[in-house]
Amino acid sequence: MKIVPHSFMKKKYKFHNEALIESVEELPNPARGWYRIYTFCAEEQFDCEEYKKCAYDEDMLALVFIDIGAYREKSLDEEVLANIDAILGFFTGIKKDIILRIAYDHKGKAPEREPFFFSYVTDHITQLSGLLIKYARHIYVYQGMLIGNWGEMHTSRFLSNFKMRKLSALLYKCLGRESFLAVRKPSQWRAINFDKDKRENFSENRIGLFDDAVFGSATHLGTFSGSKKSNEWTDSWGIEKELEFEGKLCRYVPNGGEVLYDEALAEKRKPVETVNRLRLMNISYLNRGYDKRQLDLWKNTFWESVDNWSGINMYDYIGRHMGYRFCVRNVIMKYIKGKNPVCIWKVSIENVGFARCYHEAHIWIECVDENNKMHSSMLNLNLNRILPGETLTGECNFVPVSGDIYLYAERKKDKTPICFANVTKQKQRIFLGRLSLQ
């Protein structure tokens, strides 16, 4: 029988915490941030060689715009579907989350380029459905319903409530559990979700918003009503009421788009007002190429605060807070002695971003022992549960072993790492401290 020395029995494991400092760096996290637009005409043969360089840019998102206006009065044949397949396959291959917009017009001339008969629009969605289903796991947001100037769901003859419901029903069948449909205006969302039992059933809905006129005017260029008197469910409401609605809806579905420059309002709007508007809208993504006047104004305006963000220009501040941004605030280890000793870990994580993470994401405590062997345990907290401005605590247990302790997270559907907003030497995981036998 082996006798364990009494002095050893008194020893216990102790956790030596690393300081948790919030970083101001950009994080290469999926399904959030700035994007660029890549526009294609469906009838023109796709040449991937022209676009290989975009595999190396810093954006995790790409808005893929495919103009099918050349087919407005005919079916999408096998050749054009194969071309669209090649385009989507390319962006999937370079690991971009796709914001997809397929439309008849990319020049602001929808009345000239849309089909005359509504049946062509529904037929085209049916013909595209196989590809949309095939790439559903890689399409973050499907914007619009093929219609309107630039595919933005305005200036079209097909915007009646009945037709929008018909189009959304066809597209909805193509969505996976990780992808979303988006409409241009909150009133359009309400027109589609008009049944009383669907009106505020946000948590089960897969339809979000895209706003390509953020700050373009007091009403975001007609996204909202200029009147405060609109009260019907399918009406456009005044901006305060609409922003309140967006704040509730977009806790569950994404919102993003483009910012526009309004000379009368841009210079007067304070940085904190800008950030509060984007936070209230739960903005996840914005176009880094438009409107340059507004974006340049942000680049020359600086955030003032008492924390380490003070002095950061507004363009970077906004870019780094779009979507989710998770910061580890506290780590506690409780050691339970006995025949089967165990370490109980509690990790508190705050979402300091403008929006939630809309995909499931798991978190692990990892221990690299003195022999460089990895030990890990998953926290009972999914990152998509943490709303913006909220702090939640996850817990896990594992058998103690001396070593360096790290925190690691990844998106469930494709194992893409999710980085935390703490100062760390390793981008994809953060060092929490060291566990040792005392």
What does this structure look like?
This protein is of the alpha/beta class and 438 residues long. It folds into two domains: 6-23 and 325-437, Sandwich (Immunoglobulin-like), CATH 2.60.40; 33-321, TIM Barrel (Alpha-Beta Barrel). Helix content is 23%, strand content 26%. The protein has eleven helices and 16 strands. Strand 5 (139-143), helix 5 and strand 6 form a beta-alpha-beta unit. The radius of gyration is 25 Å and the shape is globular. The protein starts with 5 loop residues before the first helix and ends with a strand.
How much β-strand is present in the residues?
A: 25-35%
Instruction: Report the CATH topology name of the largest domain.
Output: TIM Barrel
The mean pLDDT is 95
**Share in helix:** 10-25%
Radius of gyration: 25 Å
The major β-sheet equals:
8 strands, parallel, barrel
Comma- or semicolon-separated keywords:
disordered N terminus, Immunoglobulin-like, 23% helix, five-stranded antiparallel β-sheet, eight-stranded parallel barrel, TIM Barrel, alpha/beta, 2 domains, 438 residues
Architecture blueprint of SSEs:
Elements: H1 6-9, E1 13-17, E2 33-41, E3 61-67, H2 78-93, E4 97-103, H3 110-113, H4 118-134, E5 139-143, H5 161-172, E6 180-183, H6 186-192, E7 207-214, H7 239-249, E8 255-259, H8 263-266, H9 271-280, E9 283-287, H10 292-299, H11 314-321, E10 326-336, E11 342-351, E12 361-369, E13 374-378, E14 391-398, E15 403-411, E16 429-437
Parallel strand pairs: 2-3, 2-9, 3-4, 4-5, 5-6, 6-7, 7-8, 8-9
Antiparallel strand pairs: 1-16, 10-11, 11-14, 12-13, 12-15, 15-16
Helix pairs in contact: 4-5
